[in-house]
Hints:
The chain is mostly helical. It has a single domain (about 5-70), classed as Non-ribosomal Peptide Synthetase Peptidyl Carrier Protein, Chain A. It contains three helices and no strands. It has helices at about 5-15, 35-50, 65-70. The relative contact order is 0.21.
Amino acid sequence: MTKPEFLDQFAELVDAEPGSLKGEEKLEDVEGWSSIAMVSFMALADEHFSIRLAPRQFGTCKDVNDLAKLVGL
């Protein structure tokens, strides 16, 4: 998966318009980012990247780019 594809997948996960996210958005400003979205993101990481994330790994994530780094992008 490329980074633009990742951003589109993440946008879908948080109910944002495809192509609307660039990566610099602070997670606290992403309207659909919630604990439910975090669990969905964990499932996305497992399904598309074969990476199992633990909730504690999100503690240092400040923006969407930080989430991309968690999955190796």
